[in-house]
Design brief:
Length: 339
């Protein structure tokens, strides 16, 4: 009996030590948890509002257009010019190039996992590869970057520059995966144009000549961009979360978690650890590594003959797992990469 009781105490002690390590010794774990949970609470509010019928599709589309064409461009133009993280042109070049390369690598990893999981072309392989290969690089990463580094606007500013490379990969390699054709023209949207203009203003110094009243106006509009975007993510998930969505969820979910949250995260963290890039870009990549699958590929799957159900399953499962995994991945990444 004595040996049995001591054997029970050892696992209990070990579990306690693990919890102590996670919450007190892992770098910034409590801060990361505090930065992550509000994002998911806002997503939950969007989900609830849609399920209650308070956000119809027409209103959702209008709010998304408002964000893409006005709020986010204003936020970008108020954040990027004069940002210390963008003092060097090489930093912007690295951010864009890494965005393209890492997402393309993510598509490659997802292709291998999809084939191992016995997805077939015409039976969901293309949709799985597209959705599992690209992380939620903007709408979810941005509020976490803002909360996690409150005194440093560098990682938040680099979200949009890095996003240019991600968008290029999505509309060239990603769209080729789905349809066999690239859609480079689709990259030209409000945030893309705002990033280009902001970088020109930044590296020419012309931002110093922008009237103060215009700067204040853009800042006020820009503050609305992030919470509204996160709210719309929750609403979008609520719109697609129907009863039939549970079919084959185990295979799709397990495969997408492996591709996006395990192997994909490892590739991005290795890039942050070993590439000769700035500390702020390393911090951003650590956040990107923890992100669940992006939501926009759901629309691409609908438009280009894919399997929207698989896209929705990938997004929902990786997002639910992400509620738990994001703080762990970011905390471990900050300790390992040590930017």
């Amino acid at each position: 009996m004595q040996s049995l009781s001591s054997g029970c105490r050892v696992p209990s002690l070990l579990s306690f030590q693990i919890l102590v390590f996670l919450f007190f010794e892992m770098p910034s774990f409590a801060t990361i948890l505090a930065a992550t949970l509000p994002v998911f609470l806002i997503m939950g509010a969007g989900f609830l509002f849609h399920r209650r019928g308070w956000l119809d599709e027409e209103l959702e589309v209008g709010m998304i257009k408002l964000g893409l064409n006005l709020l986010f461009p204003c936020y970008i133009l108020s954040l990027l010019p004069g940002n210390q993280a963008l003092e060097k042109v090489s930093t912007a070049a690295w951010a864009i190039g890494i965005g393209f390369i890492l997402v393309t690598a993510g598509f490659g990893v997802s292709s291998v996992i999809g084939l191992v999981a016995r997805f077939k072309r015409g039976g969901g392989l293309r949709t799985f590869v597209l959705c599992s290969g690209i992380q939620n690089y903007g709408f979810l990463a941005l509020p976490i970057a803002i909360s996690l580094f409150p005194g440093n606007t560098g990682p938040a500013g680099l979200v949009f520059v890095h996003g240019v490379g991600v968008e290029i990969a999505l509309w060239t390699v990603g769209l080729w995966i789905m349809s066999g054709n690239s859609g480079f023209r689709s990259i030209i949207n409000g945030p893309f144009v705002a990033v280009v203009v902001a970088l020109i203003l930044n590296y020419t110094g012309l931002y110093h000549w922008i009237p103060e009243i215009l700067v204040v106006t853009m800042e006020m509009l820009g503050r609305c961009a992030v919470p509204m975007a996160v709210l719309m993510i929750g609403s979008t998930i609520g719109r697609f979360a129907t009863r039939g969505i549970l079919h084959d969820t185990l295979r799709v979910g397990a495969s997408s978690v492996l591709a996006r949250l395990v192997l994909g995260a490892m590739i991005i963290l290795c890039a942050a650890k070993f590439l000769p890039i700035s500390a702020d870009l390393k911090r951003l990549l650590i956040i990107q590594a923890a992100m669940p699958a992006a939501i926009f590929p759901i629309a691409l799957a609908r438009l280009y003959g894919g399997q929207p159900q698989i896209a929705i399953q990938v997004v929902i499962v990786t997002s639910l797992v992400g509620i738990v995994s994001i703080p762990f991945v970011i905390a471990w990444g900050l300790g390992w990469v040590n930017p």
